[in-house]
Amino acid sequence: xxxxxxxxxxxxxxxxxxxxxxxxxxxxxxxxxxxxxxxxxxxxxxxxxxxxxxxxxxxxxxxxxxxxxxxxxxxxxxxxxxxxxxxxxxxxxxxxxxxxxxxxxxxxxxxxxxxxxxxxxxxxxxxxxxxxxxxxxxxxxxxxxxxxxxxxxxxxxxxxxxxxxxxxxxxxxxxxxxxxxxxxxxxxxxxxxxxxxxxxxxxxxxxxxxxxxxxxxxxxxxxxxxxxxxxxxxxxxxxxxxxxxxxxxxxxxxxxxxxxxxxxxxxxxxxxxxxxx
Length: 277
Known about the structure:
The chain is α/β, with parallel strands linked by helices. Helix content is about 25%, strand content about 15%. The chain contains five helices and 13 strands. The strands form three sheets. Strands 1-2-3-4-5-7-9-10 form an eight-stranded mixed beta sheet. It has a three-stranded mixed beta sheet with strand order 11-12-13, with no helix packed on it.
């Protein structure tokens, strides 16, 4: 009887369940916003399978004890910068199956306690900033599978010192020079991919044909490896300056020539008029 009373007790939001003193379960309740009167000492908040469009930027300031937040399968289109702060104790965050379009710099606000982050199955997610995960020093698992990513800067992954597993399969990767560095990282860190590179494909830029990454090698991107030396850059800069100087001098010379020709023409015309008189 006491358990039943707690499940729908005074401290539990309307239409939600509270199976223990620190868990609030509002999954699949048709919510269009965060429920009111969530206990301030909540540690596990389950909000999956609703229609929630946004999270207030001060949300985790109010619920500083929250360690587990499940917002899977909602209507989130963006996460306001500062939503996750350095003081946050959040360990698990699931934002999968939403309508996110990009993950810009500062989205997660250096939440150093975060260990698992789910961002998969966001069909419109096409851009992840290189510094999107900056400060997530404890992050071990990152899920970015089945999004709309055609490219991803290596820095977004290489700056995660605790990363143990990353899921990237099911994205429309494009096998161009922008993908070359990521391909090298994947080959060197294939042990961090749950299914290896076998489950990943990319589209060839020439004909759009999709190929497995297992069919590619570093030589596939050798045309992208040409880098300019300092000498090359100095030659290019000097050549550009030289061309500009020559162009200016040529323009000046032509202008002077035209001016002289005009003065000569006027002088000749004057002499002819005097002769006729």
